[in-house]
Amino acid sequence: MTQMKAPFQDYFRTLIGEKDAEQFFSSIEKKVMGPRSIRVNTLKITKKALTKWFKSQGYEVADSPYSSDGIELTGAGVEWALKMPYHAGFTYPQDAASMFAVEVLDPQPGEFVLDLTAAPGGKTTHMAQRMNNTGVLVANDMDTHRLKALRSNLSRLGIVNAYVSRMSASKMADIYPETFDRILLDPSCSGEGLFVTNEGQPNYWNKKGLKHFSGLQFGLLRSAFRMLKPGGRLLYSTCALNAVENDGVVEDFLAKTPEAAVDANAMKELKKKKIKVPVQLAGLQGIRFWPHKTKTKGFFCIAITKTAAQPSERHEERNSLRVLKKDERKIYDVFLKDHFGITVKDCEWVPFEHHLFLVGKDLLRLPPPMGFSLALPALKTYENEEMKPSHEGSVFFTSMATKNVIELTKEQMEKAMKHEPLELKGVKEGMYFSKYLDFPIGLLKVGSQRTELLVPKMA
Ligand SMILES: C[S@@+](CC[C@H](N)C(=O)[O-])C[C@H]1O[C@@H](n2cnc3c(N)ncnc32)[C@H](O)[C@@H]1O
User: Fold this and answer.
1) Which of 37, 94, 105, 142 to mutate for ligand 1's pocket (most ligand atoms within 8 Å of CB)?
2) pLDDT by residue (tens digit) across 189-221?
3) CB of 294 closer than 6 A to ligand 1?
4) Torsion angle, CA of 393/396/399/401, rounded to 10 degrees?
5) 181 C-beta closer than 6 A to ligand 1
6) Which residue in 25, 170, 173, 377 has a CA-CA distance of 20 to 30 Å to 412?
């Protein structure tokens, strides 16, 4: 049974009243969550096509009420049917409340967007799809381990419009003053919203934690806001439900920042888009998802805008991203064209550590953050001008390829995924993209002795 200490219970009883507090505690105790929630990566597949797939595999599918990119699965479908689209980068398992954040922030194609505390990238990848992989998305986080997960999610979902960085927020604000149209700040918090899942730890909750997190959040909010263009939108969100971190931080910030105001347009836009907004309790500020009401994780968010420019010092000039010149990239473009029939459009190549990263042209519009990395290592390069697509590149390019794509049977795909050798009759030695139905699987190396899939083991 979940332990909830008396100070935790007292705090929430006072905040939202006895009746709702009891229901909230009960949802924590029983771990009550709604159906399995998945976000569709619309850069790779439509919601309609993916819905059809899940239905064909025995699931019942409903639209998420909180985001137009979300679906909810119920029923006794096969587990395997979930893994295929995940592996192909068609899906991101994500709670409906988290998807709601990007509905409110509403990033647009071509914009400059910052995710200051981005890892593991649920909301970053959602933003990239809303931007249609154009514009510039800076995905920053301080945690090296979590940055790895962020990069892996970005490449799995085929994101080419992102810089990944590990910079302190204040340093970043020095190099990017009033630069971004939209900013997400989703920092670490006391996480009461996660107490309905096994991730949450209600027995560690204490009031000192709220003070500690609210101090960190205030500092991050101040830096994030410095980077917002006048008229831009900043979404401050947490998976905390208390009012010291959420309302407390925002109220203090608004009081000390004359250029900041709550962005009233955000709510109007949600109404227009017919996105459901959860009912609020006890007149608290911002939008809260209470698990006992929404059957999601708990979540808080509020949109803030900049009503006037802030005084800022001139920042140092920085160089833009160095990409391969026309004559330097020719061998790679010719390789992809000759071998797979692919013409790479609207993208540039950036060489780094024996890989060529594929990036959208828009990335040249913003000088990169310090010590940055990129999301999609599409080609592996060797000395002697040898090259081959990486796993990430193979999954990314398969739908564009017009030749050397092998369609596997279900038995072959299952064998390949377990790294067992395959027998493919009448196929010449060489490199092939492989797919099963419409799901890209990875790079298949057909040799004289052995044919195998060069792919990381399936999750
Ligand atoms: C709630 S998680 C972000 C989840 C992410 N938005 C998503 O949807 O996948 C908070 C993140 O903030 C990062 N973080 C905490 N303090 C930070 C700081 N000072 N600067 C940058 N990132 C920070 C943590 O490493 C963590 O990855």
Assistant:
1) 142
2) 999 999 999 888 888 899 999 999 999 999 999
3) no
4) -20
5) no
6) 377
